[in-house]
Amino acid sequence: MVLNTAIRRTQTVAAQLDGILRERIRDGQYAPGQRLPSEAELTAEFGVSRATVRTVLTRLTAEGLLLRKQGDGTYVNKNIRDATTHIGGLWEFQRVIESCGFQASLRLVDLHQRMANLAEQEELGLLEERTVISLERVFLANERPVVLAENILLSELFHRNIDEKLATLPLRNLLHDLCSEDIAYAMISIHAHLLTASEAKHFDGYRQVGDALLRIDQTFYNARHEPLAVGSSVVDDQYLQLRMVQAW
Amino acid sequence: MVLNTAIRRTQTVAAQLDGILRERIRDGQYAPGQRLPSEAELTAEFGVSRATVRTVLTRLTAEGLLLRKQGDGTYVNKNIRDATTHIGGLWEFQRVIESCGFQASLRLVDLHQRMANLAEQEELGLLEERTVISLERVFLANERPVVLAENILLSELFHRNIDEKLATLPLRNLLHDLCSEDIAYAMISIHAHLLTASEAKHFDGYRQVGDALLRIDQTFYNARHEPLAVGSSVVDDQYLQLRMVQAW
DNA sequence: AAGTGGTCTAGACCACAGG
DNA sequence: CTGTGGTCTAGACCACTTT
């Protein structure tokens, strides 16, 4: 089997192989604890070089899906089953919810323009007051609210008005589609947080004022180190387990 | 400049290059926002292949230290300055404390053997009751308590008695030196946590009963998927900032 | 001894950004 | 157009584990 022959080159060879191996792991063709074919065998099966095989295996190993033992072989991580997010994807809640096995949905709470407060000016690297768009949303898992997220975006990034339909997009897509800006990296900090009354309202009674939840603060940058947006998200860590695998 | 010529091969070429580049970034020889030499130039300077240069640059990029732009160049991340931990090292508190710029120290709270409770049996994959070693320690940053950590280890792993001197070792070293066991990966979950009275005592008055802190639960496995130890750590997230960079 | 993953090299072609 | 990083190949040698 050779990847991408004569067909269209829509993905890289490594990306295709990555997808195939993940699928085999998910399907149980490579079962938890089982040994994978050796690099040489994968090289032969897919008709790619060993270097390509290794870049893929290295990535899957870093995510904790695989375990490699020199002189022995590559094994599927037995304990991956209940890991809901690999360390890293901590700010794509829609994904986190889905990989927890829930149905993800989104509820718009508020969308308006206002002046940035001091903390936001600081985070966004503003020297003066500017108007920002405040986008407040609730992420639901199986119809139950699990994340209350407020994102602050610079108004001037938007050439056209943002309508409510677009408020259902993940932040990455929103910035990409409406602002032609791509997130290059994010700074993230995690804190414990006591739920306030106004926040508690959005949790439909599942969580109360004074409950301890997680708060994840994020600042998103483009490749020119310019801050694009900030986010502050309150996460119900009881229901939406943030379990992660960390290799080595 | 060629790495490891005629000298001893104590580290891999990539590891040496990794160290050198990190040092240059730390020293400001490669200043924040500045462009690094191209891959070709680094290849020439260090006398290594481009593939080796790239494995190192890829790792530094993944940690958020560098930013790479196709067709342009490789840049030092401007916002790395206040990132205290790259996502990943979330369970080596000594390191986290030091990379926050604090002096790290350790205080032994308790060390005793007892029977594992049900939750611990579950986590350690035990089918019956076993004795475990409970190791409770406080990590201090500049003499101020910031982490209260309890580790549970299987008694049977220890061939000789664990003395108090060894209780000052990081868990990884402790397992390696005393049990000849190496941690291959860990499952981690993060929760918000309300401080109990008995826990609050160890924070020297800096935090009170009922304060909301972070709790990081960990299970450590060896390469054979056998659980080696569990840990439950309460972290003062106000003082010990868990700021992380996440690339792309 | 044989087979595995770990490291490294040399060279090729491509996609993209800048002058 | 030139130089940059992105992808991929083919092949070599090493370190380790298993038999």
Q: How would you describe this structure to a colleague?
A:
- Two copies of one chain form a homodimer.
- Chain A folds into two domains: 13-82, Winged helix-like DNA-binding domain superfamily/Winged helix DNA-binding domain (Arc Repressor Mutant, subunit A), CATH 1.10.10.10; 87-245, Chorismate lyase (3-Layer(aba) Sandwich).
- Chain A has a six-stranded antiparallel sheet with strand order 3-4-5-8-7-6. Chain A has a two-stranded antiparallel sheet with strand order 1-2.
- Chain A contains seven helices and nine strands.
- The first copy, chain A, is of the alpha+beta class.
- In chain A, helix 2 (39-46) packs across helix 3.
- The radius of gyration of chain A is 21 Å and the shape is globular.
- Chain A starts with 12 loop residues before the first helix and ends with a strand.
- The first copy, chain A, has helices spanning 13-27, 39-46, 50-62, 93-99, 118-124, 171-179, 197-200; strands at 66-69, 73-76, 104-115, 131-141, 144-154, 185-194, 212-221, 227-235, 243-247.
- The longest helix of chain A is centred in the first third of the chain and has 15 residues, at 13-27.
- At the A-B interface, strand 6, strand 7 and strand 9 of A face strand 6, strand 7 and strand 9 of B.
